[in-house]
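Readers of this paper often ask what the protein records in our data store actually look like. This encoding replaces a full spatial description with a residue-level series of whole-number codes. For reference, a complete record is included directly beneath this paragraph.
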Amino acid sequence: MWCHLHGKLVFDCTTSENMNAQELLPRDFLAQMRLEADPVADQAIVDIMAEGFGQMQQLYQTLSSNQKLKELPPSSALRRYFETNVVLPAWADAQKCAIGQDVFRRFGVEITMLLFYVSLPAAYSCRHGAHVLVETGRLITRKGKEDRFAHRLMETAQFVLDVMEPGAFLAEGNGIEVALKIRLIHASIRYYLKSQSQWDLATYGEPINQEDMAGTLMSFSAMVLEGLENMGAHVTAEEQEAYFHCWRIVGHLTGLRPELNPETYSDGLKLGFQIFNDQKGTSNDGEILIKALVDFISGMLPHHPIKRKWPIMMIRYFVNKDLAGVLKFEKTSVIERVLLDAWFRLHLFFHRLFQRHHYAVPRKYIGRTRNHFLQKMILYFNEHKGIQFRIPPSLMKDWQS
């Protein structure tokens, strides 16, 4: 994007551009973390399957449902797993959680959109992690069958909402149980991939390993906060740290090692970009996933002659340029690509020339499309796909105001 940097008008100066050369953890440690998964959850899956739970799909459906784990039979392995891991970390701060969740109350729709414009594209830029997503078969649109990609996006958006709604980590909230379910879903994917295929451990590491888990957490937390900055949202330093604190709790609950769960937003951003720079690479898997994502976003936007191109321009705007550079977007003619890019840059240039912030264009775009995006998601999931997308009435009231 166009902005002032050291007194010069330049293109693209997100905070992340200054993170590329910084390393929070030794490279050999991160390499080791690719071979480590989550022993607690992995053992729980072994115990659950040993009880004769049935097919893996049955387990997945149970974990994806609204059924409370605490309502399961006391002797079941699922119930034991829940009761053993339900405790919040000693460092969890209720006041910080309240502040961080209030950020989500104010900017929840924008944060959901940034999930699609930042978090997921960053994940798809990682060639090994993208391979895991494709291999699970849960992120790919299959013609003539249920839209598995859209289903997975709904699950992801619902997960973010459940752990970030006000009171999520209180006794009456859903956040702790939802996080524990996601942890077990990850373990079930590892169990499935390693038992049903010849998994290439040397190339890919453990499926959903500790490094991949840390990168994903940072893309949902620190990189989203950076995205809010780059769209001009007013979030104070205290609020940034509080929002990041909420996701640290999620990291703990989902089995992330403490060394990979930084205490501050700044360190989280450093670690996130260190991991993504370590793992980035063009891949067929990433190309499949980014195409499906652009298809999905386009379907959520109001009609516009170039609405198919807007998601691509927004992803390129919000994502670190080095990561965006390895994403293989759909092929367009050179003339079309150059003209669209020049048009977008020209808009940014004139906004800056007339003393308007560089984020005026994306903020205007997101502001115009946010309500349509929210309503389209609700209609798409609840009416057309038969999938329940739950938004608490209190949040819905704030987001539609």
Q: What stands out?
A: The longest helix spans residues 94-124. The mean pLDDT is 80. Residues 2-400 form one domain.
